[in-house]
From TrEMBL:
Belongs to the DNA photolyase family. The keyword Transport does not apply. It comes from Sphingomonas swuensis. The lineage of its organism: Bacteria, Pseudomonadati, Pseudomonadota, Alphaproteobacteria, Sphingomonadales. It comes from the Bacteria. This is Deoxyribodipyrimidine photo-lyase. InterPro entries: Crypto/Photolyase_FAD-like_sf, Crypto/Photolyase_N_sf, Cryptochr/Photolyase_FAD-bd, Cryptochrome/DNA_photolyase_1, DNA_photolyase_1_CS_C, DNA_photolyase_N, Rossmann-like_a/b/a_fold. Residues 1-122 form the Photolyase/cryptochrome alpha/beta domain.
Length: 448
């Protein structure tokens, strides 16, 4: 009988346990449901929708080439999956396990109706427990426990597929209007190649350069990290494939970064509301109202007067991605220098990132805000000007903040402080010392 494979954030054919299991039982039909209801406010944001459009087109081609087909439908996942299953008289519904609370809810709505397979992580995160059989809250011990399971299983090849004789109706991808129309802000996304082939190409490129990873991963001007995050988020490649392709090349440092992705999934299993609620509320009085809104807008547009912050925010808007060092600095600037609630920044990232990922995004925002169980203390305040110099961000700034492109290496990190700011470059929203003192003062008065 026909086997239905429900694709979600696993838009690939290789190393796909659900697809393989389905292929062993009969003809296979792939199904993707565009569901803007079940995830509530966490439905895919603008940049993710751009990615999704291209990734689904690529997946349809891959499935076709293997002998199957992809059906597109829209609506509430649990209902639509059941409906299509009954239309095709499916003998089984297969899916890979995901950890976002809304997916877990959809999987068990009215009883477990899908057969779940593990395979989008290095090791099933619910399986990693402390000595007293509790979930971990801190990364270090989690990584040590995960390390016991290395190497992860070898990736599975794509299965050979057959499809049912008659296909149910499918939406046209174009009718979903996932791409921006006017204004088309996605011009700068050309550097990305969504889909399984694009992911494999990106991985091959990284494998050749991975020797530089540990030494250069913190330098935003250098292309030394994998840039696999959007491919990993949409499941066009698995962490296991990445792990095995690299071998020892990225070193322990790379394994540790990749494992943060597993860890954040482990965290949302025990704290599904991670994206909406501080794990340890600090009781800080944050800013709101007109002046704070104006500052927030300037931050989103990359007009804070701090070159590294502005470069990061403009890279995000123009390319749908931001270097990790810049993510740390821009997030810290919003939360501490501007004293604005972390979840406003988190929501902006959600809409703008091609790798917007509920677990990773929430976990990292809470880390910077000092509200996560594992986080940097609030009173540790990153100095954006010093960070810029320390991590050699001059060329990064030149690329993303063109009005500063002609400044020297000595002036570019702090053009206002050096009296070198060109006309037209934003004035700092707040001085570093002043911002730092305001944040520390709010911290000292917390809960009062
Ligand atoms: P590499 O350095 O090449 O790492 C390889 C992979 O490991 C990444 O693709 C990612 O899947 C994983 N990884 C690396 N660092 C982290 C981390 N700190 N936390 C979780 N996983 C990690 N990452 C996302 O995938 N989606 C997000 O929405 C997201 N939001 C973030 C928000 C903030 C405020 C911060 C500080 C970080 C955020 N990150 C997020 C984590 C990290 O910045 C990105 O994963 C990384 O920059 C992606 O680039 P890369 O693929 O070149 O990473």
């Amino acid at each position: 009988s026909t086997q239905l494979v429900w694709f979600r954030q696993d838009l690939r054919t290789k190393d796909h346990p659900a697809l393989r299991a389905a292929a062993e039982c009969g003809p296979v039909l792939g199904l993707y449901v565009l569901d803007d209801e079940t995830p509530g406010k966490w439905k895919p944001g603008g940049a993710s929708r751009w990615w999704l459009h291209h990734s689904l087109a690529a997946l349809a081609d891959e499935l076709e080439a293997l002998g199957s087909a992809l059906i597109l439908r829209r609506g509430r996942s649990a209902e639509v999956v059941r409906k299509v299953a009954s239309e095709v008289k499916a003998g089984g519904i297969h899916a890979n396990r995901h950890y976002e609370p809304w997916w877990r809810e959809a999987e068990c709505e009215k009883g477990d109706f899908v057969i779940l397979h593990d395979g989008d992580v290095l090791h099933e995160p619910s399986d990693i427990r402390s000595g007293t059989n509790k979930p971990f809250k801190i990364y270090g011990p989690y990584y040590r426990a995960l390390h016991e399971h290395f190497p992860p299983p070898a990736p599975l090849p794509a299965p050979r597929l057959s499809r049912p004789d008659k296909l149910p109706p499918s939406d046209r991808l174009e009718s979903w209007k996932l791409l921006p129309t006017s204004p088309d802000w996605a011009g700068g996304f050309a550097e990305w190649e969504p889909g399984e082939k694009g992911a494999a190409r990106r991985l091959r490129h990284f494998v050749d350069h991975a020797g530089d990873y540990a030494g250069k991963r913190d330098l935003p001007a250098v292309d030394s990290t994998s840039r696999l995050s959007p491919h990993l988020h949409h499941g066009e490649i698995t962490p296991r494939q990445v792990w095995h392709a690299l071998g020892r090349r990225g070193g322990d440092k790379f394994h540790r970064e990749l494992a943060w992705r597993d860890f954040s999934r482990h965290i949302i299993l025990s704290d599904p509301e991670l994206g909406e609620r501080s794990q340890r509320p600090l009781g800080l009085k944050t800013r709101s109202g007109k002046a704070a809104d104006a500052d927030f807008r300037a931050w989103t547009r990359g007009q804070t007067g701090y070159p590294l912050v502005d470069a990061g925010m403009r890279q995000l808007w123009q390319s749908g991605w931001m270097h990790n060092r810049a993510r740390l600095v821009t997030a810290s600037f919003l939360i501490k220098h501007l004293l604005i609630d972390w979840w406003r920044g988190e929501e902006w990232f959600w809409d703008c990132l091609v790798d917007a990922d509920y677990a990773n995004n929430s976990q990292n925002w809470q880390w910077v805000a000092g509200t996560g169980f594992d986080s940097q203390p609030f009173y540790r305040i990153m100095a954006p000007l010093t960070q810029s110099e320390k991590f050699d961000a001059a060329d990064y700034i030149r690329r993303w903040v063109p009005e500063l492109a002609r400044l020297s290496d000595a002036d570019i990190h702090d053009p206002w402080g050096r009296g070198a700011a060109p006309a037209g470059y934003a004035k700092p929203l707040i001085g570093h010392r002043e911002g730092r003192e305001r944040a520390l003062d709010a911290f000292a008065k917390r809960g009062k």
